[in-house]
Amino acid sequence: MSKTKKPSIRDYLYEPPGPRTRTWIRVGTALALGLIAALVYAVIHQFAVTGQLKAKYWSFFSRWTTWRFIGQGLLTTVEVALTAAAITFAAGFLLMRGRLSRHAILWRLSAGLISFTRGVPTLLFIYFFFLVVPRTGVKLSAFWKIALPVAISACGVVAEAFRGGVNAVPRGQREAALSLGMTERRAFYRILFPQAFRYIIPTLIAELVIVLKDTTFAYIVSCADLMQNARVLISNYDALVSTYLVVAVIYILINYGLNRLSENLAGRESRRKTA
Amino acid sequence: MSEHPVIELRHVEKHFGELHVLKDINLSVARGEVVVVIGPSGSGKSTLCRTINRLETIDSGEIRIDGERIPREGKNLARLRSQIGMVFQSFNLFPHRTVLDNVTIAPVDVLRIPKKQAREEALRLLERVGVGDQARKVPAQLSGGQQQRAAIARALAMHPKAMLFDEPTSALDPEMIGEVLNVMTELAREGMTMLVVTHEMNFARRVASRVIFMENGSILEEGSPESFFTHPQTQRAQAFLQSIQDH
Amino acid sequence: MSVSALWDQYGSQYLLALLTTWKLTALSFGLAFALGILITVARVGPIRPLRRFGDFYVQIFRNIPGAALLILLVYALPYLKVLFAYETCVLIATTLIPSAFCSEYLMSGMNMIDRGQIEAARALGMRFFQIIRRIVIPQALRFSVLPMTNLMVATMLTTSLGSQVPLNPRELTGLVSYINTHATGGVTAFVISAAFYCGTALLIGLAGSRIDRKVRILR
What we know:
By secondary structure, chain B is α/β, with parallel strands linked by helices. Chain B has helices spanning 45-52, 74-82, 99-109, 115-128, 144-156, 174-189, 201-207, 225-230, 235-245, and strands spanning 7-16, 19-29, 34-38, 60-65, 68-69, 84-87, 162-166, 194-197, 210-215, 218-223. In chain B, 47% of the residues are buried. Chain C has a single domain (3-215), classed as MetI-like (MetI-like fold). The termini of chain C are far apart. In chain C, 50% of the residues are buried.
């Protein structure tokens, strides 16, 4: 992959520093380093004086069984997230088709559903599946009680991402396909959507982050995901702070990785376009 | 009256990494002179133009504006810059302000001229470059030629000692080049000191007091337009003029 | 339960919950915006450790799930002898997360500013802070109106985290789960909250696009 990075305002906002500016920057750097060091020290100090650095709170992380248990929870989290993602991508695609259709009813219905799912918090959907759905006699496992609401909550955003991708394909492509005698439908599936997909992929990966974050509410429906397994660890080892911190870091790292992947793909796409 | 050249470069050197973009550049522009810099793309002529108000730094040598050495930073750098007008290839008008605001923003902020006075003067300048009726619009509503003329007015509002033109017509549609060159010609007639980087040979022939030919970061030739265009001394210059005439 | 029966019983609580959601949203968004600006200043400033710190901050809070952050604030901090009221915990969570996104949007707004803009201002003799004040900030803010509108809606959605702790008064999501665990509000109870959320999102969207139309930079 090429190293050419997009020029950032961080670079061109400043002129090459003269001697006076350089002195200022040096002073500022020293002050900032001091401040950050003080902050880090304060945090560690607070951990130390409250006894949270004691070995008993951290030693069980060197045990294989701990990580296997965390891994099991993580596996469930990933399963829920991927299932929800698959559903939401499919639903998002259908909503996008509806939104771009010329049928007034279909169009309105899809637009309405998109606004609805975008305007309502995931938690409300989760409580709906947790509290209301069971009373209607529909029996869902904990897995689906979290996967379905997370999927529904994301599908409007996904639909808009699909639509943005399709609209990013130059107009001439559709016209060229139609002029070759393709039907609208054929032109969409053979010409427009494959091209749009290139733009969409980074957004879909970024969407995975949202889905993954939303799965952390799985504890509400008692699904044994990463968060839930963390609770078990906490009651076993009586180590709340360390366990929740580790779990938070795991989530952050996964999401960070996904975001980076998405940015890299998007960057590659824009480079290919300008090349 | 000072006897200093308005712009003076002595032994200016610049590298972009491995690339030696300016090689021992010596150049002075006297008051009222119009110096046109020509040369193939990549010859360093734009970079030369941009070093004069230190939009590009130099590795060694010195640059003087009206006898005063251009400093590396601070208040004096800003002050010297404000005395040199610059017109860019891509206009660089501020898109979030009206054309009028574009012309008044620097006089008000930098020269501390009262707003009302700055406005009156700006309208006069816009009138002079032929876009007085566009003053209340934002730049995007103007044609390229109009934008570039407004950009010239913006630079003139600072009462510059000299004007730098960095390929001012290269981004314009052909039918708009003339209107910008006319404004520039008018300025030259009024005695403005100008350094113009351009590909417009007719402008160079008609307006320049001196033509400078650059290639590979060096000034290869300099002379009056008549002598340069009729008897170029170096083979490079001959080849360059030939290549332009071919189309 | 019919809408009217439900409304008779819980109407005033719904209105209170709507107000609570609005209050939390406005407060969080305002704080997040201020914090986002500070972080952005650190990130574009010339001081390298501050840049790193700003980048780090953004990566943490843009990637941490809201539930995980809230749990840390509510359950872990007391072990460290840092004790906040539930309301404060929710407010901190619903401020920190949007502040990271706010900084991201401001950064991309700033990156949309053409380099030639800054050169032109420099060539006119403008000093660094004049350029910041006259050229960079106004343009970056105009480029960020629509992202900020979306951020405000996202902040509103994030305030539903308030349902995970006992709040008094409850916000819209907490009220629904309360009604449904104490009575049989059924679908209706959800529909009312959902309508309030959607209506708010719609209003924010309308206001945002109106502002955007007014200040948008033609290019």
